[in-house]
Amino acid sequence: MKINKVILFNLASNFFLMGNIITTQFLIFPFYKDINSSTFMTYSSIQFKTSFVLLLIPMLIDIITSFILYRQPSTKKLSLQSYPLYISIIILMAILIQFIIFGILTQGFHIIALKSIILLNWLRVIGWSLKSLIAFILILKNKPSSEAV
Question: Are residues 83 and 65 in contact, defined by beta-carbon separation less than 8 angstroms?
């Protein structure tokens, strides 16, 4: 697969994941405090499971394409194409921490747990934004020359 296609798949998965997180931040989490306590655990559990199913494939695409970019030959030890994988590892750590916190929320509303998830989501948005910027730079660096066309 040509490197530009890998970069485009990476960019598309980043945009999808970023859009989902931003939507969640503004449309789902603000209403958590308004859900009555008798249905909160059920709602939180359903939201967590739905998010997992919805985001699994884009996250796998993101990680796989980041790894492919990392494996591309480069003359520099820390080249720009390495950064998406490093950022993906940070994002994965945030997600693992969120799994633990979502476990707390499935037991009932907890304001500190919710604020922690929101903070970690913003960290993921920043990570995917940086990865998108890097993907744009890589596309510009790898664009075919006008002589090749």
Answer: no
